[in-house]
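fyi for ur records
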Amino acid sequence: MMDNRPGERVGHEHENDVSKRVQEECFKIMERVKATGEPIVITSKGRPIAKIEPADPADEDFFGSLAGTIKIVGDIESSVEPPEAWEALR
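which gave:
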């Protein structure tokens, strides 16, 4: 069973209604956070227990998102050491 109000129990036949109301209220809170961009702190007995904040905006395309941020200098295909120096090849 779920608590409706402090000290008041809700019967099994009403649990779905309570769950639906909780879901609706949570959705309203999330929509408010999305619209305002302001986080909301959820408290229990005056103490913060959770925080809902806007998600970071999704990048349009992951592939190519780092284009232009890396500069290749020198030969990146050749080994740093010549093959004769590799112990595994001895």
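The CA atoms of residues 11 and 19 lie 12 Å apart. thats all i got for now
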